[in-house]
Records
---
Amino acid sequence: MSVHLRPEEIEAESFRIIDAEAGSHSWGPDQWPVVRRAIHTSADFDYARSMAFSPDAVPRALAALKAGRGIVTDTTMALSGIAKPRLERFGISVSCFVADPDVARRAREQGITRSILALRAGASDRGNGIFVIGNAPTALFELIRLVREEGLRPDLVVGLPVGFVGAAESKEALLALEHEVPEVPFITNRGRKGGSNVAAAVVNALLILALEG
């Protein structure tokens, strides 16, 4: 491989390799670009098998992005990984409250995680409709609680928390929403794998599709 390839050439070659190694699959034409970018970010082909989309998740996600709905992330890493020029094309704001001093203070006082209170802070703004969770299962569990108990209806949930405690379980709870509250679209995966980088990659893939559509 030439070291003089431009970034876009490296990305194109990476996608060619992924397509070749993945082989035949059942993903639809609107889903595969999302799955492929998750693989591209992580170099992990498990995502070709473990990703899951609620019905119409991608078209509904694209509609939310084109409408300029705000994005809330559970980590500053996920926030940093979302391409800002693409967000600006749609006038989308992106926020993360986990490092907010007031959130930290109230979390200590209440004996709960900052991720829970940060999620609540983002959900309290009606301008926010897209929730991107790549690290904290507690944030995803809280989002699901808000959907079930308080009538929150996100435009999209990207639920990809990572880890050994609660990550897989929180994603199974999100998958269950397809039958309990079918009007909430989501993109997730099964198992322990995930991460802020993969969650941001999913959003970037959707932004690219929105710009192309």
Note: The two ends are 33 Å apart (CA to CA).
---
Amino acid sequence: MKVTSSDIVISAVKPEQYPNTPIPEFALAGRSNVGKSSFINKMINRKNLARTSSKPGKTQTLNFYIINEALHFVDVPGYGYAKVSKTERDAWGRMIETYFTSRDQLRAALLIVDLRHPPTKDDIAMYEFLKHYDLPRIVIATKADKIPKGKWQKHLKVTRQTLNMEREDELLLFSGETGEGKEQAWGVLKKYM
């Protein structure tokens, strides 16, 4: 997909703040610092629309980005970050659950995991949550540039097995550095639009 326009629409914490448009949405879930912002920026050919941070746990709202006036990427707060209070984590959990379980425009969840390591307990819990609510799931294994190409398949297999993925769920390799997997990712997203 050729991206000609992209912008942040709103940072929302409750449903009445969500954009009131019928366009399809793709939510990005993943632990803090896994590369959600880098994924968004690479997909839309922008350096810093989605702000990357060296401080994990920075995203505390649902950030809606509009692309080509045709779809939204929704960046949800990262999980698994210890320096956030339990109260705050619970509030994020409720906010994320409300969005995932009540949003008609949501076409699929993109679960972003780090290809270099087996998915964490939190990644598995998120995958199970999406499965429980029967939400379409696309697993994006980022940071592919940090692993020799010859080991990609081995790492993808570990990801698929650790998450106990359903056969029909997509698992894509991605690099925010090199753009590896970008065209494939757009191809998969188009199927859900």
Note: The helical segments are 36-43, 86-102, 121-132, 152-163, 182-192.
---
Amino acid sequence: MFTGIVEELGEVTAVENLGDASRFRLRGPVVTDGAKHGDSIAVNGVCLTVVEHEGDEFTADVMAETLDRSSLGALTVGSRVNLERPTAVGARLGGHIVQGHVDGTGEVLERRPSENWEIVKVSLPAGLARYVVEKGSITVDGISLTVVEAGPDFFTVSLIPTTLELTTLGRKQPGDPVNLEVDIVAKYVERLLASTQGAAR
């Protein structure tokens, strides 16, 4: 489990095409500290498994399903990525509960800078709109954010200078893809209500 609090801005140092998968090598001194084979690290919000670890770099295999359903397929050597290790038991939950299971991808539609923050508008796939509410939580490229406005096919978030400086959202431009994970609580509530209504019939 993750919290959506990005630990560092890493970098893709190599991409190897394996046919029906890809192997990424990524640099991240913070998240690789103490890392070992089999550990999980979230890369732009996608939970990946460490295959190898050497120095401040690690490799992770990404299957075709993940490449197709997330924005990881668009990564190239030099791409910057948000990195986060799983939260430790008993640690503070600084963001919200994040699984690292991407629900879909959106696209940056607009950036509106202000003096002390920036509003970013992101497209929202139709199937996810019902889970996104004003002042609710959403994960964008692995970043736990609060929804400012929730539209039928878009949402907006307000980014403080720290987020702009230390995450990929400070660099994303209109047209760039982003990974989206909606609040898991909303999905469980929907499922439970559907089961309750079905049992009542």
Note: The chain has a mean pLDDT of 92.
---
Amino acid sequence: MTAPATPAVEIRPLDPLKDAELIHPWVTHPKAAFWMMQDAKLQDVERAYMEIAAHPHHDAFIGLVDGEPAFLMERYDPAEVELVGLYEPQPGDVGMHFLVAPTDTPVHGFTRLVITAVMRELFADPATARVVVEPDVRNKAVHALNEAVGFVPERAIQKPEKEALLSFCTRAQFETAAGARI
């Protein structure tokens, strides 16, 4: 008997003009409520990701699993975007958001595979010392996923759009949670 193959995960830069149509149904899906784009039109999504593409401290990516687009990932400098003035940034801090594409046929463990791939991608950069996240305090599912890959919640913070749970994950915490060195 052979073990099931581990899915191949690739991460590529998001092209706002080419990928807006792909991600529009993802970010407006009811399960993406915490993405806060429920009522966004295609042009709104395109515009939002054009702004990210033009920003020197914010990037967006499409994640492919076995060659199929499956998730959205954002990387940002929390000293410049999202968390300015809300915590004391440290050298090597990198902010992250991720969103798994909605599906009618969920696969057990898929979201854990995605967040692990996202964290591996972020820590592949030797300059990344710690990943910072700020999900909505009500998003219990993502808190559990974050903790599963090594995040430790620090405190609730008030952002303009939400009350968020500020959490951190060092390289060592991720390696311990992932069970392997990066």
Note: The radius of gyration is 16 Å.
